[in-house]
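Our consortium's second objective concerns turning raw sequence data into structural hypotheses that experimental partners can test. To show how far this objective has progressed, the report includes one record in full. It was chosen at random from the queue rather than selected for favorable results. The single chain below, 732 residues long, was entered without modification.
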Amino acid sequence: MAKKRDGGGPSKIQMAAKFLGVSVLAGAVLAGIALPAAGALGLAAKGSVEGFDDIPANLKTPPLSQRTTILDAKGGEIAKVYDRDRTVVGLKDMSPYMQKAIVAIEDARFYQHGAVDLKGILRAVNKNAQSGGVSQGASTLTQQYVKNVFIEEAGDDADKVAQATQQTLGRKVKELKYAIQLEKELGKRKILQNYLNITFFGQQAYGVEAASQRYFSKHAKDLKLEEAALLAGIVQSPSRYDPVNDPQEATRRRNTVLQRMADVKDITRAEAHAAAAKPIHLAVSRPQSGCITATDGAGFFCDYIRKVFLNDKSFGKTRKIRSKLWSQGGMTIHTTLDPQTQKSIQKSVSDHVYADDPVASAATIVEPGTGKILGMGQSLPYGFKPHQTQINLSVDHDMGGGAGYQPGSTFKPVVAAAALEQGTSPYQKYSSPFRMQYPSPVQTCNGEWQGTDATQNENKTEVGPYGMKEATAKSVNTYFVQLISDMGICPAVKMAQKMGIERADGKPLQQVPSMTLGVQEMSPLTMAAGYAAFANSGEYCSPVAIESITDPRGKAMTVPQTSCRSAMSKRTADTVNTLLRGVVQDGTGKKAGLQGRDSAGKTGTSDSRYAAWFVGYTPNAAGAVWVGDPQHQRKMYNITIGGVTHDKVYGADTPGPIWRDAMTGALAGRPAPALSTVPINDPDKGKGDGGKGKGKQRPGRGHGGDNKPGGGWHIPDFPHFPDVLGGGNGGW
């Protein structure tokens, strides 16, 4: 029986056996390394020795997680994002002092021994036996590197991290086998380089380059002796030797490293004393991680980029693959964000709606013909504090947004476009009473809708008959209820789909006549991209946010492209342009009109004023602005927004000016092309309503009114429309 120490504790031999068994002996024996006292010590490792050959032969080293840089369209930095703040560099970009310091303090015999340091093991055995505990380790720098690889591979998985760091014989055996492999395959210099790039230096800094930037705001190649010694000392215990929080302890540890460097003759005693006499001088650079650091309100766009990456199969077949690629980072992402547009959006939103107002605002501008998102901002800043949020109020729920907001009358142009595509004349009249019930039944895509719902116009003075242009300019609800009831709901649903206009919650559009009044929740990005089709001769292009990406090696990656399709004929788009230009010239959107630039748009207000909108466009930009309560609880009556008190909030008086100012700044100094339009005359109100037509879109039906000579209006500007008859209640 082994002799015990005084007091009944284990003997020195037992302590040695425990230390060697738990740390390295099993692997060493299997590697053919002869050690003294093998008989007693080998038994401690027997259980794990038998599984040594089952360990895979090759260590899979995952790409090191690095910073990803997100840039705007001009190359300016939006933000750096990372799971781990790291910049991988070669030995040539690391100070020689740094290389010598880490070797001296962590593994002084690194260049003399193999994967296992036999002399170091025996020294540790003796030291630990004398102390009665494990006061000194025997892992080589290579073994430490292997452990860090396991930790890196574990990522943020707490269970895997625990497995990678647990003090078990099995892990030590695996660690040693891979260390032997790496010593053969990589060589000492490559192992040292990898170690200095992977290890953790505290303060969220991984790798020596990030650590040098964090503590000294300089590159690792520029580190002085005393600075390199400080960083090398941190590695053993980043929290204990943190120079930011405990400079005295960090100084003591630094001086230990300097002494060790002198002992192994990497520096002279005089150099060590001179460096140790210097106080620590830090130039701390705080972590600048994530979208929260973006300026000009671009944090939400930054987060949208992450969502695009995680959701799009261009970056991997499964979300797990895409998530891993994003976590590894090291990419440079060039986006579509135009800094001039972004700055203008954020300034306009912030000027008109304050962060602590009872409601919020969001705005997005896209480019017609390309789908490029040029800007995205909102009144609530990106963050975690009061009056901040991480919800992107401009986008759909699956892209980081909320459930969306009712767009109100901004949906009416979609219905108008659908009707025009069906052959309806822009001169189509309806009686448009102040209040009316929805006609029933109404055709849907799969049957018909029946109900007894009613609606009314905003003002009692809004009583028809109206034609399409005047009804659009005044946003007459009952006109559009009659229009969709005659046309049927399905054409409006299909037009919305072709224009990319969908519900923010991802559910299908409800096929009900009230959809013409914008009662289904949508996002500003959706509405802006949809309206861009009017500016682009009827062609819709899906929104895109990424121009290009290069991987950590500088190789171009495949990125999602916009998908363009014809949503309507050019004639229909030009006709809608005419209708919506009238809105900003003489209708509800006059406050949104742009000076010296052709524009068109539509106001919108939801039931009970939970939301107010303006969506508009020029030939080179389309934008949507929403104002309201994201929780859909605060009605906008008797409310102060941006320092302005309102009895009622309209799309014209708050979203309209936001849109005007945002677009004015975004387009400053840029071309001002004219919108493509068609002439639509304004027949005298009240004429043509004396007949008994039912308002169906059937040429030649309905009885003549006062506007016909010889049976109807001839419309030379619409050659595909037949001669029409003025009729009662809007009949042709």
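The partners drew two points from this record. Confidence is low (pLDDT under 50) at residues 1-50, 133-137, 685-732. DSSP finds 23 helices and 18 strands in the chain. Both points have been shared with the crystallography group to help prioritize constructs.
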